[in-house]
From TrEMBL:
<comment type="similarity">
    <text>Belongs to the V-ATPase proteolipid subunit family.</text>
</comment>
<keyword id="KW-1133">Transmembrane helix</keyword>
<feature type="domain" description="V-ATPase proteolipid subunit C-like">
    <location>
        <begin position="116"/>
        <end position="175"/>
    </location>
</feature>
<comment type="function">
    <text>Proton-conducting pore forming of the V0 complex of vacuolar(H+)-ATPase (V-ATPase), a multisubunit enzyme composed of a peripheral complex (V1) that hydrolyzes ATP and a membrane integral complex (V0) that translocates protons. V-ATPase is responsible for acidifying and maintaining the pH of intracellular compartments.</text>
</comment>
<dbReference type="Pfam" id="PF00137">
    <property type="entry name" value="ATP-synt_C"/>
</dbReference>
<feature type="transmembrane region" description="Helical">
    <location>
        <begin position="12"/>
        <end position="32"/>
    </location>
</feature>
<feature type="domain" description="V-ATPase proteolipid subunit C-like">
    <location>
        <begin position="17"/>
        <end position="73"/>
    </location>
</feature>
<dbReference type="InterPro" id="IPR011555">
    <property type="entry name" value="ATPase_proteolipid_su_C_euk"/>
</dbReference>
<keyword id="KW-0812">Transmembrane</keyword>
<keyword id="KW-0406">Ion transport</keyword>
<keyword id="KW-0926">Vacuole</keyword>
<dbReference type="InterPro" id="IPR035921">
    <property type="entry name" value="F/V-ATP_Csub_sf"/>
</dbReference>
<keyword id="KW-0472">Membrane</keyword>
<feature type="transmembrane region" description="Helical">
    <location>
        <begin position="150"/>
        <end position="175"/>
    </location>
</feature>
<comment type="subunit">
    <text>V-ATPase is a heteromultimeric enzyme composed of a peripheral catalytic V1 complex (components A to H) attached to an integral membrane V0 proton pore complex (components: a, c, c', c'', d, e, f and VOA1). The decameric c-ring forms the proton-conducting pore, and is composed of eight proteolipid subunits c, one subunit c' and one subunit c''.</text>
</comment>
<dbReference type="InterPro" id="IPR002379">
    <property type="entry name" value="ATPase_proteolipid_c-like_dom"/>
</dbReference>
<dbReference type="GO" id="GO:0046961">
    <property type="term" value="F:proton-transporting ATPase activity, rotational mechanism"/>
</dbReference>
Length: 181
């Protein structure tokens, strides 16, 4: 591939950074913080553990958002036109653009930055949602242990926290769809 000012060889790095941002940010804090609360509840009221797992499940959904956008970004990536694929595996999974030459190499840096923005939007929204779910999950399950009427309120707050991650996924999907020429 010939390198010009519009097609640097480091362009795919930004796509991979978008994938890493989408996958690694978000759900871990929510799961850990809610897990601490569930552990505290389990020592005093083991019968409430199953109902108290809702925050951990909702944190796991944020991880799925990151996985979805990471798979979409990885599906958009392909070797530059004019290069030989490194393995014979590419002969089976190459997109049409590689085989036909329909894609312009000058769009690679644009696509890479759009992938980065897409991954960051999902990842950072996942951080906000994971933080919210973790704090609410920890305090909510501890309060639920003492007063069962707070359960519905806790679930509603968790839903509103989860929506933050969903908004990031929607923005990430829009950005990813705009990365295609």
């Amino acid at each position: 591939m010939s390198t010009s000012e519009y097609t640097p060889k480091f362009a795919p790095f930004f796509s991979f950074a978008g994938i890493a941002s989408a996958v690694t940010m978000g759900a871990a804090y929510g799961t850990a913080k809610a897990g601490i609360g569930i552990s505290g509840v389990g020592t005093f009221r083991p019968d409430l553990i199953m109902k108290s797992l809702i925050p951990v499940v909702m944190s796991g959904i944020i991880a799925v958002y990151g996985l979805v956008i990471a798979v979409l970004i990885a599906g958009d990536m392909s070797p530059p036109i004019g290069t030989t694929p490194p393995t014979s595996l590419y002969t089976y999974v190459l997109p049409y653009e590689y085989v036909s030459g329909a894609r312009d190499n000058n769009n690679r840096i644009y696509r890479s930055f759009m992938h980065l923005a897409s991954g960051l939007s999902v990842g950072l929204a996942g951080v906000a949602a994971g933080y919210t779910i973790g704090i609410v999950g920890d305090a909510g399950v501890r309060a639920y242990m003492q007063q069962s009427r707070v359960y519905v309120g806790m679930i509603l707050i968790l839903i509103f926290g989860e929506v933050l991650g969903l908004y990031g996924l929607i923005v990430g999907l829009i950005l990813n769809s705009k990365s295609k020429p």
